[in-house]
């Protein structure tokens, strides 16, 4: 099947500053792709290039098999939802939904049908006669999504649409956006710096840094087999614990802590030398369960964060701080000695210099 969107060798520079660097990306028909990264990584810039809001320096963009590299945004067959609601304050909700369609010369009967359909899907039918000032933040964002929805396009672009909302509204609207995608089955590209949004919404995630895509994969692939140390640190809260050590035929030995992990396969030319050993907080066990694991350590509770379902504990092990995710019923106190253990099969090993996964 031909990709819904194809990006070929895309470069974008502002003067001497290179912002996006030789990006190649195919997004499947009906796929929900999330562009994830910290501020300044280039994710919103890439979205704006796809939308036609920025002129690229080099490369090509195809939507539905058509080269749209230099086409106007209105001709690209996209609907865009911004971080800012950008609603017309003097118009009602219905007026905001119909404004673009009227300007495009869409017949009145079709406008009415599109608005009725979008209002039903987004559950904003009772709000059509209100003005934006009389709406909550979540309702305004629904209207902003509806304005894109009435365009009846194949591709929707979301630029951090939930970042202005409180935590409860974010969670509620996140569910609604996922259900919207399941209902419409349109191609959606979603920009966020929130890893929870990325992991729960995406079919695939593209993690960006410095204008490059560091890893492209399913949420499970990104979580279980991060391509490099940056991805491993970025995904997960708290992030992965790292031990600085050395890899050789006898396994992995961490400095100062002195444990060895056997079973690393050197038969395929894998690298010896300095390396990072990473294990996630949720893969570390405590108490009696720790005693059955190949790697066992002891640490002192340094910080305790009760979260209800979980309890996060920061342990001081030697000269390092290690995060452990414990059952919410656990009530450790500062200063407690806690035995921990883990299976190295759940871990990741990264080269010390390149930080790439080994």
Topology readout:
Layout lengths: L4 E10 L2 E11 L4 E5 L6 H9 L6 E6 L2 E2 L10 E4 L11 H11 L4 H15 L14 H13 L5 E5 L7 H18 L2 E6 L2 H7 L2 E6 L2 E6 L1 H6 L4 H6 L6 E8 L2 E4 L5 E2 L11 E7 L5 E2 L8 E12 L3 E8 L2 E8 L9 E6 L5 E4 L7
Parallel strand pairs: 3-8, 3-9, 6-7, 7-8
Antiparallel strand pairs: 1-2, 1-4, 4-5, 9-10, 11-12, 11-14, 12-13, 14-20, 15-19, 16-17, 16-19, 17-18
Helix pairs in contact: 2-3, 2-4, 3-4
Number of helices: 8
Spell out the helices and strands N to C: EEEHEEEHHHEHEHEEHHEEEEEEEEEE
| Terminal CA distance | 33 Å
What is the CATH level 1 assignment of the largest domain? Alpha Beta
Q: Largest beta sheet: what is the strand line-up? A: 6-7-8-3-9-10
Task: Report the CATH superfamily of the largest domain.
Answer: P-loop containing nucleotide triphosphate hydrolases
**Beta-strand share of residues:** 25-35%
How confident is the prediction overall: mean pLDDT? 88
- Secondary structure: helix percent: 10-25%
Secondary structural class: alpha+beta
Which residues form runs of ≥5 with pLDDT under 50?
A: none
How would you classify the quaternary structure? single chain
How large, in whole angstroms, is the Cα Rg?
A: 24 Å
Tally of discrete structural domains: 3
Shape: globular
- Major sheet: size, sense and barrel closure? 6 strands, mixed
Counted beta strands: 20
CATH topology of the largest domain: Rossmann fold
Task: Name the CATH architecture of the largest domain.
Answer: 3-Layer(aba) Sandwich
Organism: Paracoccus amoyensis
Family: Belongs to the ABC transporter superfamily.
GO biological process, one term: carbohydrate transport
Keywords: ATP-binding, Nucleotide-binding, Transport
